[in-house]
Amino acid sequence: MSALLNYKLEGEGHTIVLIHGLFGNLDNLGLLARDLVKDHQVLSVDLRNHGLSFHSDDHHYALLAQDVNLLLDHLNIHSVTLVGHSMGGKAVMKLASIAPEKVQHLIVLDMAPVAYQTRRHDNVFAGLNAVIEDKPLNRRNAMDVLSQHIEIEGVRQFIGKSLYNNGQSMTWRFNVASLEKNYWHILGWDNIDPCDVPTLFIKGGDSDYLMPEHQAAIQAQFTNAKAHVVAKTGHWLHAEKPAEVLRVIRKFLQA
């Protein structure tokens, strides 16, 4: 029996599953969860190698999807709406392909079903590894180390949410070594057979993760897909414009 993912389950009604992206945890889509829980059951999940979930040397989308599917079976949940951001978007796309009978709606936040060729996180890994090597004794020192590698304050604050004291020094809840080793799997993607689950791709207008050149790959793999662009927002659209993202999600679910 595989280990179960750490999760938070709240509310009542049709179940919406929220899946975070790389270096995240189950609180990352909290702005969405706080609204959706008013009239749904919301399942927020820590993916493997993140948050309080188990660490593993292996990290690719077939496993991420299987982990979530096992959790749904464990919780006796048979019908869901899946919402995934970035890496979590690929995880939910994969899950819809292996268990379409469970998925009523699929919502992908700023991610395409393609293999990306550009490494975007080398500075982040450098900062994470520097903290591991330096063994800072408090949060402020850890953030100082991080700032030598990651320029953008918002990125540092986001990453810093996964710092904790292991009894000797500050370190990371996520499994840095495995995520770095499997980084090309995280960027990568194996095309799935055509999936007819009703699907909504929500793009951050200023983000370059979901682009016009990805349209053919989307249409080939998701035959019942729509798209919506949230203007003047980047890859973190759910944090930057939660009210608009929620409006788009709710409209899609009611259609």
From TrEMBL:
UniProt keyword terms in alphabetical order: Hydrolase
Start and end residues of each AB hydrolase-1 domain: 15-242
Gene3D superfamilies: alpha/beta hydrolase (3.40.50.1820)
GO molecular function: hydrolase activity
SUPFAM superfamilies assigned: alpha/beta-Hydrolases (SSF53474)
Top-level taxon of the source organism: Bacteria
Residues in coiled coil: none
Protein name per its UniProtKB record: Alpha/beta fold hydrolase
Provenance organism: Vibrio eleionomae
